[in-house]
Design brief:
By secondary structure, the chain is mainly α. The two termini are 28 Å apart.
Length: 153
């Protein structure tokens, strides 16, 4: 296996982890309670409150092993979580496959991934305007620069 293939696998795995974190952000940020933040409490089943072990928190793999259910109460876990993680992994991987592994292609993939929560928030009609307008421009501009770069090739 070549170094490039190992790097592509690593990029995909990093994308899965980013997607997993963005799932937490999407779920927790709109909820305004003093007991819920991005870091606390630890990941848990929203029904039975079972705290997830590290091996129940592996992106995509845990969902498959647990057959889409909580290990404790057997409540169904939505397929949207592993799908979102897979999309994030693929979005980080795709620019690197198309344009080779470089800082620009990784930045492009990261830029696209950071736009995913906006799609969800717009769908839920909960947009964080300050974040959207101030920080949302960075990934958009990075993506535009990447498109211009590939158009010149």
């Amino acid at each position: 296996m070549s170094i490039q293939n190992i790097l592509l696998i690593d990029l995909f795995l990093i994308g899965l982890c980013i997607g997993s974190f963005l799932n937490v952000v999407i779920y927790r940020l709109p909820i305004k309670t003093p007991t819920l933040s991005l870091s606390l409490p630890k990941s848990h089943c929203p029904i039975c409150k079972h705290q997830l072990s590290w091996y129940e928190n592996i992106p995509v793999l845990s969902w498959c092993v647990l057959k889409g259910r909580c290990r404790q109460c057997k409540t169904s876990i939505s397929i949207k979580y592993p799908i979102f993680e897979l999309i994030s992994g693929l979005l980080l991987l795709t620019p690197a496959i198309l344009g080779g592994i470089s800082v620009l292609t990784v930045a492009s993939g990261l830029a696209i991934i950071t736009l995913l929560p906006y799609v969800y928030w717009i769908k839920q009609k909960t947009i964080f305007n300050t974040y959207m307008y101030k920080w949302g421009l960075i990934p958009i501009l990075t993506f535009i620069v990447t498109i211009i770069h590939y158009a010149k090739k």
